[in-house]
C-alpha cells in the first residue's frame, strides 16, 4: 500500500454517501462507548451501594432508625429506595386501617413501583447499545455496497480491468463495513455484560423486597394477634 | 454510604469515549503509512515487440564500435609518434654531448702533449705529435661521420617505420610500448658500447702517447710505424664493431617491421571481413524493419496480450521478459516459452498467462501464407510501462 491507499486518504476520497455512512458510524461508535462507560460506572456504584445497604439492614438496626437516617426519597437508589417507599407506605397505612392485609398490599404495591423505577434507571440507555450493536453492521454494509457499486461503475469506463483499477474503490468501500463492525462489536459485548449485571442487581432488589415484606408481615401478624387478644 | 456520588454524570464517559476513538485514529494514521513501504504503482501495460531474427541495431552498434576503435588507434599512434620524436631528440642531444666530451678530451690531450713536448724538448716530436693528433682528429671525424651516417640511416628507417605505423597502426598499445622500450634499451646499449669503445680507444691512445714520450729518444720512426699500424688496426676494429652493431640494429628493425607488417595485414583482412558482415547485417536489418512496419499482425498480437495482461503489483522497476510464441496457421497457440526471464517469477508468470489468455490469434488466418510462415514462431518483449 502506498500513500494513496492509507486509511485516512481512502476515507477522505470516498464518495459522499459512503462518507455519510462513515460519519454516522463514527458517531454511533462514540455514543455507544459513552453509554458503555457511563453504564459501567452506574452499575458498579449501584452494586457497591446495595452491598453496603444490605449490611446495614441486616445488622439488627431498628427499622425506624434506619428510615430516619436515610435522606429524602429522591436521593435514594436501589434497595434503599425500595425500603424507604415500602416503609413509608407502611407507616402511613398503619394508623388508618386495622386490616393487615390491606396494609401489606399497599406496601407491596409501593415497593413494586419503586422496583420498576430502579429497573428503568439501571437499564437506561442500554437499549441504545442494543440498537448500535444490531444496526451498525447493516449500515456499514450499506456503505460497502454503495462503494462497490461505484467501483464497478468506474470499472466499466476503463479499458482494462486490472486489480489496481478496482482496488482503491473496494478498499474504500470495505472501510465502511470495518467501521460498522468496529462500532457493533463492543456494543454487543457490553450490552450483554451490562444487561446481565443489571438484571442480576434487579433480582437482588426483588429478593430484598420480598424479605422486607415478610418482616412487615411478621410484624403486623404479631400486632393483629395482640388486638384480637 | 455512597449516597452522595451515586449519580453518575456523562462528562467522564464522554471524555473517555472520545479519547478511545482518538487513540484508535492516531494509531491508524501513524502506523499504517509508516509500516507499509510504497510499491511502484505500475498499473500500466506496455509491451514491445521484438522479432526473432531482427538484428535491429547490431550493425549500427558494430560500426560505432569500429569508429571508436579507429579513434583510439589514431590517438595511440599520435602518442607513439610523439614518443618516438622525443626519443630521437634525446638521441641527438646525447650525440651532441658525446661530441662535446670528445672535444674536451681532445683539448686535454693537446695540453698533455704540449707538456710532453716541453719535457722532451724535441721539436720534431712535437711535429709528429701534432701530426698524430691530426690523424687522430681525422679518425675521430671519420668515426663521427660514420656515426652520424648511422644515426641518419636509423632516423630514416624510423621515419619510414613511423610513416608505415601511421598508415596502419596496431591496436595493442601495450605491446608496442614494450617493443619500443626494447628498442630504446637496444639503442642505449649500443650507445654504451660505442662510449666504451671510444673510452678504450682514448685510454689506449693515452698509453701510447706516454710510451712514445718514453721511447721517443730511441726509436722514433719505428715506433711511429708500429703505432700507425696498430692505430689503423684499432680504428679498423672499431669501425668493424660499429658496423656490426649497426647491422644488428638494422636487422632488428627489419625483423620488427616485418612482424608489424604481417600483423597489420592480418588485422586489415579481419576488419574488412567484419565490416562486410556488418554492412550485410545492416542491410538485412533495414529490410526487415521496413517489412515489419508494413504489417500489423504483431501489433494485433501485442494489443491482445496487453488487454489480457494483469500486471502484478510491487514490481521492481525495469523488469522485462522475452517470450517466444509458437502459433499454428489457424492462430492457435502451440507453445509459449520464456526466452529471457525478468528475474521476477510473478512477473514472468503474469506474462505467460497473459499470452495464453489472449490466444488464439485469429487474425493469423487472414495473413498470406508467406507471412504466416514468418509468424509461426516469434518473440515478444514485455515490460510494464506507465500507461493505465
Short description:
Chain A has 229 residues and is mostly helical. Chain A has helices at 7-12, 16-57, 63-69, 78-96, 100-122, 126-157, 163-228. The interface between A and B is large, with 40 and 33 residues.
Index terms:
heterodimer; A: 229 residues; rod-shaped; B: 388 residues; alpha+beta; Fusion Protein Consisting Of Minor Coat Protein, Glycine Rich Linker, Tola, And A His Tag, Chain: A, Domain 2; 2 domains; 8 helices; elongated; disordered N terminus
Could you tell me which chain pair has the largest interface and how many residues each side has? Answer: A-B, 40 and 33 residues
The low-pLDDT segments of chain B are: 1-5, 35-43
Regarding quaternary structure, how should these chains be classified?
Answer: heterodimer
Roughly what fraction of the amino acids of chain A lie in strands? under 5%
State the secondary-structure class of chain B. alpha+beta
The 3D shape of chain A can be described as rod-shaped
Structural category of chain A is mainly alpha
Amino acid at each position: 500500500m502506498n500513500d494513496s491507499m492509507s486509511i485516512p486518504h481512502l476515507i477522505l476520497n470516498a464518495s459522499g454517501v459512503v462518507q455519510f455512512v462513515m460519519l454516522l458510524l463514527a458517531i454511533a461508535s462514540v455514543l455507544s462507548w459513552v453509554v458503555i462507560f457511563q453504564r459501567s460506572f452506574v452499575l458498579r456504584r449501584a452494586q457497591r451501594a446495595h452491598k453496603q445497604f444490605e449490611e446495614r439492614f441486616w445488622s439488627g438496626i431498628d427499622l425506624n432508625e434506619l428510615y430516619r437516617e436515610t435522606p429524602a426519597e429522591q436521593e435514594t437508589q436501589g434497595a434503599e429506595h425500595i425500603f424507604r417507599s415500602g416503609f413509608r407506605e407502611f407507616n402511613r397505612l398503619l394508623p388508618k386501617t386495622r386490616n393487615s392485609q390491606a396494609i401489606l398490599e399497599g406496601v407491596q404495591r409501593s415497593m413494586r413501583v419503586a422496583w420498576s423505577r430502579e429497573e428503568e434507571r439501571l437499564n437506561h440507555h442500554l437499549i441504545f447499545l442494543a440498537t448500535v450493536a444490531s444496526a451498525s453492521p447493516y449500515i456499514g454494509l450499506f456503505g460497502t455496497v454503495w462503494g462497490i457499486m461505484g467501483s464497478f461503475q468506474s470499472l466499466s469506463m476503463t479499458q482494462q480491468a486490472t486489480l489496481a483499477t478496482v482496488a482503491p474503490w473496494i478498499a474504500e468501500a470495505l472501510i465502511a463495513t470495518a467501521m460498522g463492525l468496529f462500532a457493533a462489536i463492543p456494543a454487543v459485548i457490553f450490552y450483554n455484560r451490562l444487561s446481565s449485571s443489571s438484571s442480576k442487581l434487579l433480582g437482588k432488589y426483588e429478593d430484598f423486597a420480598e424479605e422486607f415484606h415478610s418482616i412487615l408481615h411478621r410484624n403486623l401478624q404479631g400486632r393483629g394477634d395482640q388486638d384480637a387478644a | 454510604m455512597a449516597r452522595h456520588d451515586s449519580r453518575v454524570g456523562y462528562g467522564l464517559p464522554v471524555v473517555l469515549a472520545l479519547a478511545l476513538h482518538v487513540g484508535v485514529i492516531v494509531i491508524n494514521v501513524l502506523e499504517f503509512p509508516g509500516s507499509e513501504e510504497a510499491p511502484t504503482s505500475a498499473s500500466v501495460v506496455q509491451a514491445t515487440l521484438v522479432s526473432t531474427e531482427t538484428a535491429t541495431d547490431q550493425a549500427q552498434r558494430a560500426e560505432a564500435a569500429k569508429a571508436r576503435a579507429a579513434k583510439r588507434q589514431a590517438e595511440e599512434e599520435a602518442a607513439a609518434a610523439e614518443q618516438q620524436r622525443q626519443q630521437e631528440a634525446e638521441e641527438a642531444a646525447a650525440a651532441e654531448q658525446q661530441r662535446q666530451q670528445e672535444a674536451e678530451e681532445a683539448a686535454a690531450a693537446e695540453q698533455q702533449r704540449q707538456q710532453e713536448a716541453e719535457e722532451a724538448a724535441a721539436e720534431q716530436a712535437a711535429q709528429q705529435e701534432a701530426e698524430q693528433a691530426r690523424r687522430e682528429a681525422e679518425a675521430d671525424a671519420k668515426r663521427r661521420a660514420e656515426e652520424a651516417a648511422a644515426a641518419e640511416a636509423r632516423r630514416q628507417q624510423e621515419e619510414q617505420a613511423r610513416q608505415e605505423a601511421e598508415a596502419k597502426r596496431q591496436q595493442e598499445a601495450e605491446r608496442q610500448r614494450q617493443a619500443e622500450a626494447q628498442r630504446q634499451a637496444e639503442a642505449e646499449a649500443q650507445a654504451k658500447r660505442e662510449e666504451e669503445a671510444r673510452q678504450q680507444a682514448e685510454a689506449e691512445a693515452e698509453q701510447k702517447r706516454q710510451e712514445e714520450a718514453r721511447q721517443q729518444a730511441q726509436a722514433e720512426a719505428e715506433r711511429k710505424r708500429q703505432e700507425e699500424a696498430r692505430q689503423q688496426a684499432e680504428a679498423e676494429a672499431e669501425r668493424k664493431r660499429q658496423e656490426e652493431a649497426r647491422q644488428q640494429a638494422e636487422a632488428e628493425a627489419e625483423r620488427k617491421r616485418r612482424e608489424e607488417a604481417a600483423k597489420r595485414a592480418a588485422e586489415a583482412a579481419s576488419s574488412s571481413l567484419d565490416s562486410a558482415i556488418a554492412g550485410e547485417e545492416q542491410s538485412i536489418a533495414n529490410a526487415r524493419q521496413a517489412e515489419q512496419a508494413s504489417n500489423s499482425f504483431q501489433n494485433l498480437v501485442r494489443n491482445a496480450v496487453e488487454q489480457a495482461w494483469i500486471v502484478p503489483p510491487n514490481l521492481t522497476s525495469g523488469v522485462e521478459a522475452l517470450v517466444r510464441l509458437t502459433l499454428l496457421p489457424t492462430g492457435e497457440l502451440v507453445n509459449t516459452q520464456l526466452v529471457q526471464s525478468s528475474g521476477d517469477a510473478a512477473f514472468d508468470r503474469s506474462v505467460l498467462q497473459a499470452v495464453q489468455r489472449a490466444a488464439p490469434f485469429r487474425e493469423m488466418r487472414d495473413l498470406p501464407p508467406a507471412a504466416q510462415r514468418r509468424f509461426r514462431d516469434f518473440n515478444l518483449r514485455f515490460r510494464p510501462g506507465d500507461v493505465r
